[in-house]
Design a protein that fits this description.
Chain lengths: 334, 427
């Protein structure tokens, strides 16, 4: 059995897991092969004028997106990623929290020192290919991301979500406390347009900035898009559902999603189930962190989830923007 | 020779003396705020004072027709009792209120906004929010409109929901939640915020389009709307008319202090108590319990508490001087124990030979003695701010850059805990 379980739907459509995966009833581990390519792209900001150079991932012949395509596998599977690199610099691929053999790549700096450039083996620039394999993957929510010059390459957009489903259908982990009816992914990230411009035009590290110490993001994204008046609500099940929300932070800053209305049971962090869930309406979401929560709205409604770190603007504009979404919970079907 | 107080004319001297004089006036310990089931709040502009003399343009919630308050009035509610909050708007832009942690808020009147209904800036339209606080605990409210700017400008406030059965006059009912693990002898509010004055200046001069919160760079940090050392001034001090709340936690050895900690700004604040660890018992108005009714069985001890924006934390602080290895009262071995004294150290000598007076520098809160409740000789002009011979512990942000007022140390997110000797009244 060789199943490539890639969901190509738009991120904000990702809600009903059962309809999208073919894991139900499957108990034997599969080998899942994903053909990813890394490539430059651009993203247009909500003002319709500003475009930002980005690097992103795509699967097979699909267009490049940021975040990269969501990857879903099942616990115990072997995940193989064939990465083709169409960028002008080497890249690599890591999944913090999943175990594999790492082969760091070193370089000699200007003072003759050996320093790490990539956490593991690289796909060479200009069309090079590399194969990355993780066996016996653990359930949970993870980021996949570049392992090369990560301060720059992750910021440029080389990240995406990996969801490893439990072998028990309808559960995020191997425990009944993680059972859910619906799920959605909220992946947080930021864009500093000046940094992207410098990396794109080659001035970063040469005539321009030499580090991200002056990092100053202007756009704050959920699932690749800042909020704007055009952003529709996210479907989040019906009243009484257990709605699993997988929070991921691929940005460089801490964010603090707050849910107005229902509470969230915080069940897991970095792909590890807590022994006891905690009931909160706020959530500390550190850079690089994933956290899983279950909300059980008792009533239908439109429930905002806003970044209480107040990254709620698009480049300083006064209208609502940034890391904000409205979760739409519909009435229960009688 | 008895120690004589010297009033050196400093603000701190005024603070401590005034606090002492308040002692007889208040019969019981409660966080300052407004109570009831209907509140009329007005959003308007005003000014606050920084502890360095700064006068800063802010936007705030006022109680009725009063002046703005920073933070907004602390709403003290009762579990299960419905509340109505009417909001009118005298600011230059639309405004609203959201209530994180309140599960069934209804809003009516005004205009539809992104998060909730909003009051237009006409000084007349009333938006009405209603909800029933179904669970006791510590919460907050803030503007749900243009929130990156309006929270920065001051539109935040605390909410305390008293559990059913709470009676301010009966200490046996003093609990934050419906479990003895949250019982306390004293409670204090710690609402943390920060400000970037450039945003305030631009809005004061109408340069609205120049405001860009992505360049946010705070240089003032607040507890309950004041920078240190103003945190230690009395509540309601007349020269801080828009900052009525103070933060001067006081307790006796062996008592339980409840801290209601609210991350009301946009930054994380690592809050560090000296003297002992905090025991975190609740977050976001929910006891840290493994199952309902078990109490705070998931409570944990913390040396530096991560205050997260938008999150509330309840913590218990206790102090007896335990395990110092010497008798903090300076007892001889045969002396009777003080209430709640740590018996194993009773009568153990102070392990330091005190230098002579010419060899030391005197802190203004030094009583002249290392022992709790004891006064000693101090040269003329020294000390004077510790008339009860209490122990002072600095409680502050462990992000030490936040302990300044626009680059001047000490200040910012800092105050003092005072361990008072037994017999000293604490309001
Ligand atoms: Cu300290």
């Amino acid at each position: 059995m060789n199943i490539t379980k890639i969901r190509k739907e738009w991120w904000f459509c990702v809600s009903v897991l059962a309809a999208l995966t073919v894991t139900a009833g499957s108990t034997s581990a599969a080998t899942v092969t994903v053909n990813l390519r890394a490539e430059a792209t651009t993203k247009t900001m909500p003002d319709g004028i500003t475009t930002v150079p980005m690097w992103g991932f795509a699967v097979d012949a699909d267009p490049v997106t940021v975040p990269g395509p969501p990857i879903t596998v099942t616990a115990g599977d072997t995940l193989t990623v064939n990465l083709t690199n169409n960028l002008s610099v080497p890249v690599s691929l890591v999944i913090p929290g999943q175990i594999t053999t790492m082969s760091p790549v070193w370089f000699t700096d200007g003072q003759g020192r050996q320093r790490v450039m990539s956490f593991t083996h690289e796909a060479a620039s200009g069309g090079g290919m590399a194969v990355y394999t993780w066996t016996n993957v653990k359930p949970g929510t993870y980021l996949y991301q570049s392992g090369t010059h990560p301060a720059v390459q992750i910021q440029m957009g080389l990240y995406g979500s990996l969801i490893v489903e439990s072998t028990t259908p309808g559960q995020a982990y191997d425990d009944a406390s993680s059972a859910y009816d619906e799920q959605l992914v909220l992946l947080y990230s930021e864009i500093d347009p000046a940094l992207h411009e410098a990396i794109d035009n080659g001035s970063y590290g040469t005539t321009g900035a030499t580090s991200t110490i002056d990092y100053n993001p202007k756009y704050f994204l959920i699932n690749g898009e800042p909020y704007s008046a055009a952003t529709g609500p996210l479907p989040a099940g019906v009243a009484g559902d257990r709605v699993l929300i997988r929070f991921l932070n691929a940005g460089l800053k801490t964010h603090a999603p707050t849910l107005l209305g229902p509470y969230m049971k915080v069940i897991a962090e970095d792909g590890r189930l807590y022994p006891y869930a905690r009931e909160q309406c706020s959530l500390m979401l550190l850079a690089g962190k994933t956290r899983d929560v279950i909300m059980t709205p008792s009533a239908a409604g439109a429930y905002p989830v806003l970044d209480r770190a107040l990254d709620l603007t698009n480049a300083g504009a006064a209208s609502a923007g940034g890391m904000l979404r409205i979760l739409q919970v519909n009435p229960a079907v009688p | 020779m008895r120690w004589q107080p010297y009033n050196r004319g400093g603000r701190l001297a005024v603070a401590v003396m005034a606090v002492s004089s308040l002692c007889g006036a208040v019969a019981y310990a409660e966080i300052d705020g407004i109570t009831g089931s209907t509140f009329n709040l007005t959003a308007k502009t005003g000014y606050i004072s920084g502890a360095d003399g700064l006068s800063l343009h802010v936007w705030g919630y006022a109680n009725g027709g009063g002046s703005i308050q920073y933070p907004g009035p602390t709403l003290i509610l009762e579990e299960g009792v419905p509340v109505t909050i009417n909001l009118t708007n005298e600011m230059p832009e639309a405004v609203s209120i959201v209530f994180p942690g309140q599960e069934s808020v209804t809003a009516s009147g005004g205009d539809a906004g992104v998060l909730t209904r909003e009051a237009p800036p006409d000084g007349m339209t009333v938006v009405t929010y209603t909800f029933t606080p179904t669970r006791p605990g510590t919460y907050h409210y803030h503007s749900g409109t243009h929130a990156d700017v309006q929270i920065e400008m001051g539109l935040v406030g605390a909410i305390i929901v008293r559990p059913t059965g709470y009676d301010a006059l009966d200490p046996s009912t003093w609990r934050a939640y419906e479990h003895a693990d949250s019982a306390y002898d004293h409670e204090y509010l710690f609402l943390f915020t920060e400000m970037d004055y450039e945003i305030h200046w631009k809005l004061e001069y109408g340069l609205t389009s120049q405001v860009d919160t992505t360049t946010f760079h705070p240089v003032y940090w607040f507890i309950n709307g004041r920078n240190a050392p103003d945190t230690m001034l009395p509540a309601g001090t007349p020269w801080l008319p828009t900052q009525p709340y103070n933060c001067l936690p006081r307790m006796h050895p062996g008592e339980r202090m409840l801290l209601r900690i609210i991350g009301a700004g946009r930054d994380m604040h690592p809050f560090h108590p000296h003297g002992n660890n905090l025991t975190v018992i609740a977050k976001d108005g929910r006891l840290l319990e493994s199952a309902p009714g078990l109490g705070a069985d998931l409570a944990y001890s913390d040396f530096t508490l991560a205050s997260v924006p938008g999150q509330t934390v309840d913590a218990i602080f206790e102090w007896t001087g335990e395990k110092l290895g010497w008798d903090i009262y300076g007892h001889a071995p045969g002396d009777p124990l003080e209430p709640n004294e740590y018996a194993p150290d009773h009568g153990k000598p102070f392990p330091v030979v005190l230098p002579g007076q010419l060899e030391i520098t005197f802190g203004s809160a030094y009583s002249g003695s290392p022992f709790l409740g004891a006064l000693g000789d101090i040269p003329p002009g020294e000390g004077g701010l510790n008339a009860n011979a209490g122990y002072f512990y600095m409680w502050h942000s462990h992000n030490e850059v936040e302990m300044v007022n626009n680059d001047i140390f000490p200040g910012g997110l800092m105050t003092m805990l005072i361990i008072e000797p037994h017999g000293v009244p604490i309001p």
